[in-house]
Amino acid sequence: MFTAYINAAMKKAHYEILPNNEGYFGKIKDLQGVWANADSLEACREELKEVLEEWILLGIKMGHTIPIINGIDLNVKEIV
To answer: Using an 8 Å Cβ cutoff, are 2 and 8 in contact?
Structure first.
């Protein structure tokens, strides 16, 4: 489920070429704080994926609500 969520989120990524040959910038819409920049597009994708993984794990640890993407819900449910 974790891998499926990451793959679905990465499909929503948007990349831009930075001015003056400064590299690439990538972000994932609706996931606040998930962004990366690097010298090449491939390096930017890899960095963005790492940021996303850390963002998810930290969010779960801190009890934040993780947005549902393509029906994939990573939020911890309390069992009563």
So the answer is: no
